[in-house]
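Box S1 | Example of a co-folding query
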Amino acid sequence: MVREERAALESGPVRYLESGAGWPVILLHAFPLSAEMWRPQLERVPEGWRFIAPDLRGFGPEARGGAESMDEMATGVLDLLDALQIDRAALGGLSMGGYVAFAMLRREPERFHAVILADTRATADTAPGRAARKEMLATLRAKGVGAVADAMLPKLLGETTRRDAPEIEQQVRQMLQACPVDGVAGGIQSMMDRPDSTALLDSICVPTLIIVGEEDVLTPPADSDAMAERLSRSRVVKLLRAGHLSNLEAPREFSVALADFLASPL
Ligand code: MLT
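Box S1 (continued) | Returned holo structure for D-malate
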């Protein structure tokens, strides 16, 4: 059963979803979604594990204000771990969640015994990427979250999902539209300013699972291969017929890959 919880932290209140009991696994969501994104995995927690998915700063149904940096989002999650008295955990993030995971690993690497990087990349934004983010900020300010949702949806979901699973598109649209303008703006600015984490990969010596949808056009499989090349202990799983939101588009396969990794990390 998925439980909805709240914590009053020094860095601000946070809502999180939780399921299972045992060793903690932290799951960080993509932009511009929320912890809700992880429901398929929260509904299939392997025995002996406890999955915890927080809303990142500026996202989710109870968000107030937006984050100013990936580091601020990382602080919120680290504070939550302190509040829950979690000293050691497996840390996973999908896309922007991966960027936040990098910020956490930079600060407290010893706290994490395994890492899951899904549909993400270690590199910072390119100059054209930054220009596109600026345009998205302008669209957001002029036309609201709905216009950002319209622009992003075709890229967030793979071709197969868009053709065969309109219910997933609907679900993602609802999550997108529930995000407050300030939160989305903070997310865009934070992603635009995030540092390059490529060198950080060399220092990650814990087992790392990389998952990517074969149809991901935002962080394509080549980005995953590039991360695997720098990591000393990694496994790459490519999910067929899934795009950027691979955990929603191929939920069963994603959960199986995650459970296999947790049961026998590299
Ligand atoms: C995400 O899915 O979190 C974002 O699309 C990542 C990005 O735009 O870099």
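The chain is about 45% helix and 20% strand. The chain has a mean pLDDT of 97.
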